[in-house]
Design brief:
Length: 736
């Protein structure tokens, strides 16, 4: 591995014009593809195997004109203070609005609040339901503008009007905080390298890699049914790993220059050693992301595969384009320890020969490993305590910022009709095999009325064939509450008795039921996913480190950091700690995808630091240093770079906390805090402490396994042999 990458690095350095041309061509090709790609249609959200999805599919078959997947809008009206919606003037305004809403070519139906009895008991709030023939993503701008214009005319007449539903859904934006994250990364790179040019290389290559990845996703969005969150995730992961991987190689290149090697040789050795760590670190991230497919949620699978593709591009760019750009930079990228004149280069160090911070810290940990280990484990354990109260759900309009009309409509409906009105349950009764379908419909409705936390049950609405009916159930609690989840399970339990007595099948669907099913599916998949991803990465790390205990320690440390990060997520997004500071306007259940997503992504990213830091330790140990000294050596060469990489990755992820999308905000915070815990507590404290305690045992590997494993040579031992051979070859002619 090291020898191959060494040659690839030297080739890219020499053929830099060709390498740069290839990457520019790929970026251009992806950009042209994105620009010429058709506008993506609706992103299908299907959850194969769940009851909610089965009910949805049944509705498509038995109610073909229902437009079950069409967009909906709830236009909510509130009368001025002291008035009611039943007053003649307000009533006339609402009826005018309903007529205007019915004119659109994409509109399937509009309900009149007064005919549908959609007026609150106190008469102050009413709503009109608009059903469209197309989904929210397919709805034309003209249709959205007509909806907004009708609402504005009602506002001009004196009513308070807000619009809920998915008809006005928009692509989430991240705001300026994402730019701030990149700016922080730039500052950290400048401080790390002491050179503006060297700092600019990782940023440039990361942006190119993300550009290729996101443009490719955009170009394929319509064909592969990719949602907007897919590109957001690819950007988040691609920027973080792209900067880090380039940082690792540029840092090793400068270290090789400092040892007196010429630039081409330094590039080759940097790619051969640090590049090997990048390859295996990238592989762990790809394994974790692609492994999301085991959950069998198509949207999650597509997000993982797309992000994995962006990571693969980042690895390839780091191995080829970074050497090419270093060739262009020439002497302007200085050896390690030298700074450009603009940043203070040429000054005499205050204390020449003083050990750097990484060396001092590692020496301290090696002297007191037990105390450091206990303090780190107890600290992470304390941070993980809130995770015991974890409640899972999916965001709805109630989690939107209060500045949005969707959130205000949600609040008005809760005020006028109760919190459960925002999450109605649709019960589908399939009585095709029943002897008396109508009796079955009535029995189901009567049974639901007797359940706890039920406010309203509409009469059964059968289809034309009379073999299937829908019943709308309004819970007494908000959609994301435990009480509503219990109600869904109670209806399904009652359906089992109906099946036995009447031969009819009872299914519960709707957005709320779908969210409950997604959460359950994710919970069920978490353990198999964890075993798959950690197991595969464990085997990969055995090959890299040629050790059993080092990969085991890496996996256990990762579990600690993930649990601590989940605890922090619960504290902020569920308990409300620091919620105002982070822009969390509505606390509640944590996004159901968060645990499994954090396990996958954080594991891959955590292994980046593990591979880069510990390979330097193993490199020192293989070359004859004692175990404790090898730990210090690894920190002397790698701590500064890993610290910079962790700060950069944290800044990039934290930039997404400013997103308007609740899911993106939660992911950004969770990944940022997880990287902090993993890099600065696990990798910087627990890893050296454990290795110091284990000593030579840490690098133990059974002889039979040592013979069976392939030799990937991450330490670059083959490079030393090849260098010696070349040196001997150079000397041979002189002796003849």
């Amino acid at each position: 591995m090291a020898t191959f990458l060494y040659r690839l690095g030297r080739l890219s350095f020499r053929r830099r014009h060709l390498v740069a041309l290839i990457w520019v061509a790929l970026l251009t090709l992806a950009g042209v593809g994105a620009a010429s790609a058709p506008t993506p249609g609706a992103t299908s959200f299907s959850i194969p195997g769940t009851e909610a999805q089965k009910a949805f599919d049944l509705l498509e078959q038995r109610f073909p004109g229902m437009s079950a997947d069409g967009a909906t809008a709830r236009v909510v009206f509130k009368a001025p203070s002291g008035e009611k919606m039943t007053d003649p003037g307000n009533k006339a305004t609402v009826k005018t609005t309903v007529r205007e809403l019915s004119d659109g070519s994409e509109v399937a139906s509009v309900t009149d609040p007064y005919q549908a009895r959609a007026v609150s008991k106190d008469g102050t709030i009413a709503y009109a339901q608009v059903k469209y023939k197309v989904s929210g993503m397919e709805l034309q701008d003209a249709g959205k503008d007509a909806l907004k214009q009708a609402a504005q005319q009602a506002r001009d007449a004196g009513l308070t009007v807000e619009i809920g539903g998915d008809a006005l859904q928009a692509v989430p934006h991240t705001g300026t905080s994402e730019v701030i994250g990149i700016a922080v990364a730039a500052v950290v790179l400048v401080i790390t390298f002491g050179s503006l040019l060297a700092a600019g290389l990782p940023l440039l290559t990361a942006i190119i890699g993300v550009g290729i990845g996101v443009a490719s996703i955009t170009a394929l969005a319509s064909t592969l049914d990719l949602g907007s969150t897919t590109s957001t995730l690819a950007t988040m992961i691609g920027l973080a790993v792209g900067i880090d991987y380039a940082l690792f190689i540029v840092s090793r290149y400068r270290a090789e220059l400092a040892e007196g090697r010429d630039r081409e040789e330094a590039v080759g050795r940097a790619v051969g050693t640090a590049g090997s760590a990048v390859v295996f670190a990238g592989l762990t991230v790809v394994i974790a992301l692609v492994g999301l497919s085991v959950v069998n949620i198509p949207m999650l699978t597509k997000m993982g595969v797309a992000a994995a593709g962006t990571v693969a591009v980042a690895v390839l760019i780091a191995l080829t384009m970074i050497p090419a750009l270093l060739g262009y930079a020439g002497r302007r990228v200085r050896p390690a320890g030298e700074r450009s004149r603009l940043l203070g280069g040429g000054r005499t160090p205050r204390k020449p020969g003083r050990p750097n911070m990484g060396t001092r810290w590692a020496s301290f940990v090696v002297r007191r490993p037990v105390a450091v280990l206990l303090l780190a484990v107890v600290g992470l354990g304390a941070a993980a305590v809130p995770a015991a109260s974890l409640e899972l759900g999916l965001p709805d309009d109630g989690s939107q910022p209060v500045s949005t009309t969707q959130r205000r409509a949600y609040d008005l409906l809760s005020e006028g009709f109760g919190p459960g009105f925002n999450g109605p349950l649709m019960v589908v009764v399939d009585a095709k095999d029943s002897d008396d379908p109508h009796a079955a419909f009535g029995d189901v409705a009567d049974g639901i009325k007797g359940l706890k936390d039920v406010v309203t049950v509409t009469p059964p609405a059968p289809n034309k064939a009379g073999d299937t009916a829908t019943i709308t159930v309004i819970p007494g609690s908000k959609p994301s509450s435990v009480a509503t989840e219990n109600l869904v399970h109670a209806i399904r339990d009652q359906g089992a008795q109906v099946k036995a007595d009447q031969g009819a099948t009872v299914l519960v669907t709707g957005a709320t039921a779908m969210n409950i099913d997604v959460s359950q599916k994710l919970n069920d998949a978490l353990l198999p996913y964890l075993v798959l991803v950690v197991g595969l990465a464990f085997l990969l790390l055995i090959v890299v480190f040629r050790s059993i205990l080092v990969p085991l320690k890496a996996a256990l440390g990762f579990l600690l950091s993930v649990m601590a990060a989940l605890g922090a997520v619960v504290a902020v997004f569920q308990w409300g700690w620091l919620a105002g500071l982070l822009g969390v306007e509505e606390t509640g259940p944590v996004m159901s995808m968060m645990p499994i997503f954090m396990v996958g992504v954080v594991f891959g990213l955590a292994m980046d630091y593990e591979v880069f830091l510990v390979t330097r330790m193993r490199e020192a140990y293989v070359h004859g240093e004692k175990p404790a000294q090898a730990v210090v050596t690894g920190f002397r060469h790698g701590a500064r770079v890993v610290t910079a990489a962790a700060v950069i990755m944290t800044a990039v992820f934290a930039g997404f906390i400013g997103s308007s999308e609740a899911m993106v905000k939660t992911i950004g915070f969770g990944l940022a805090i997880a990287v902090l815990f993993d890099a600065f507590v696990v990798r910087m404290a627990i890893v050296p402490a454990v290795l110091a305690l284990l000593g030579r045992t840490a690098w133990w590997l059974p002889k039979w396994l040592d013979r069976a494993l392939p030799n990937v040579d991450v330490e670059g031992e083959g490079l030393r042999t090849e260098a010696d051979a070349r040196r001997d070859g150079d000397l041979e002619p002189a002796r003849v």
